[in-house]
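The methods section describes the discrete structure representation at length, but only in general terms. Each protein is reduced to its one-letter sequence and a matching series of backbone shape codes. I believe one specimen quoted in the main text would settle the matter. An entry of this sort, consisting of the sequence and the corresponding backbone structure tokens, reads as follows.
***
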Amino acid sequence: MLNFIPVGMHDAYFIASQECGASIETSVLLNYTGAWEAKLIEHFGKEYERVGSTYLTATHSILFIRSSLAAQLTRIETAYVATGVGDFFGNKGGIAISCNIGETSFLFVNSHFHADQAGVEQRNADYEKIEKRLGLRTEKDDHETRCSDGFERVFWAGDLNYRCNCNRGIAESLIRDRNLEPLLLNEQLRREMRSKKVFEGYREADIKFPPTYKFDVGTNAYDSSKKNRVPSWTDRILWRSKAKVTCTHYDSLPSVRTSDHKPVV
């Protein structure tokens, strides 16, 4: 199951998941994270150490670092922000792990934003709440400063749930022809970022893979339900850094068919 995580290639691995061990409904009553973390720890072996982990309902994050670098770790902290109904329920929200590696500060965020084609403003609001309420390296009760402002390297991943504004038939035709640019021009997150309404200062690598949602589970076929959802890039990885970050690989994993999403690495 974890063969798509190539152990040994990198010094650190941040793994962000939603509903990986259990559904949101089950996760309200049952903490599934122990079994999931045990699988990951076994997969990484003695060459890596677990820096920290955190979860909110069915959203889970864990950070590993090469054992030879563990002595350079300081200021390890975790935090979470619920943005579900009444900003109380954790079916939507964000979780974070922060640390210093040597003299450099890192923030890793995993979030699950509100769904639905028309939910753009809710998703933008999710981002703002998470940024301003995580409280890592900000003054107590300061809900105006972006948490990410306190870090030199920030990586933000998750089911951000932004959709493509397009007809379903046209979208599928473009995907079959591998002509993704028209879809990307009508993609909500990119549009909102261009307008500086969300994730200001963040960057994303070029998207050259097909939309990652929504699939019929067990297949590579897009949604055949009555909702007939437009294929969209809901699953994303962004970064914000005070020094240059070079992304050498950004792709989805169509071989994983156990979810209605395709993982992104």
